[in-house]
Amino acid sequence: MLLIPAIDLKDGQCVRLRQGEMEDATVFSENPAAMAEHWLNHGARRLHLVDLNGAFAGKPKNLEAIKEIMSVVNGEIPVQLGGGIRDLETIEKYLDIGLSYVIIGTAAVKRPGFLHEACDAFPGHVIVGLDAKDGKVAVDGWSKITGHDVVDLAKRFEDYGVEAVIYTDIGRDGMLNGVNIEATVKLAQHLHVPVIASGGITDLEDVKRLCDVEDEGIMGAITGRAIYEGTLSFSDAQNLADDLRP
């Protein structure tokens, strides 16, 4: 089980939101590159970046901060990024500066043809991010709940050739009230590509519960507020996940 620290970027700073609300942001660092180095030094094997401004603007907005992070990482571990990716040119630009994976979320739901093109143009580099509430997919910064069933949509996107699916339970993200294990497992059981869990990790017990279902197809979990507020030690969490590996 891969524990993946999240670095959410807003106005060049590292922040965390509660349930995706831009107005409810807590600044954890004014130097995202230093934060990336911190997680690298604590044993991170992958980083998860989100351009929050980009997600709302529909185009990259924190490019300088991202470049600084990539300079610090220097190819040591894979880095994935989502937020504001709406065209093939943006994907190419991100891959050129060293990102391993781009995450397409709202655009995948609204313009599935674009996701299909991206998978064809950049095989092995595209992850789809599906955010859901009560099994229905949300878009536009979680402001709209669609009628799409998350399992049905994920299966269609799997056929396009995505590398993985990041599944976020938006009712739990940033709230420190546990992972929705049942919904995450249900999704993973219907797919052949791996699922990355996101939203709600609070403590080592949550990590253990995820490890217990790893063989259902859950390859990793993104963690944010818990490791910034100290309810979870990242190093302890990754060590526990390694110890519990079958």
Strand content: 25-35%
End-to-end CA span? 10 Å
Count of separate DSSP helical elements: 11
Main β sheet profile: 8 strands, parallel, barrel
Please report the total strand number as a whole number. 12
Shape: globular
Q: What's a quick, concise take on this entry?
A:
The chain has 246 residues and is α/β, with parallel strands linked by helices. It has helices at residues 32-41, 52-57, 63-73, 88-96, 106-110, 112-121, 150-160, 181-189, 204-212, 225-229, 234-243; strands spanning 2-10, 13-18, 21-29, 47-51, 79-82, 101-104, 126-133, 136-139, 144-149, 165-169, 195-198, 218-223. The longest helix has 11 residues, at 63-73.
Tell me what you see in this structure:
The chain has 246 residues and is an alpha/beta fold. Helices cover 39% and strands 28% of the residues. It is globular and about 40 Å long. The model has no long low-confidence stretch (mean pLDDT 92).
Fill in the keyword field for this structure.
globular; alpha/beta; 39% helix; single chain; 246 residues; 11 helices; 12 strands; 8-stranded parallel beta barrel
Helix and strand layout, with pairings?
Blueprint lengths: L1 E9 L2 E6 L2 E9 L2 H10 L5 E5 H6 L5 H11 L5 E4 L5 H9 L4 E4 L1 H5 L1 H10 L4 E8 L2 E4 L4 E6 H11 L4 E5 L11 H9 L5 E4 L5 H9 L5 E6 L1 H5 L4 H10 L3
Parallel strand pairs: 1-4, 1-12, 4-5, 5-6, 6-7, 7-10, 10-11, 11-12
Antiparallel strand pairs: 1-2, 2-3, 7-8, 8-9
Helix pairs in contact: 1-3, 9-11
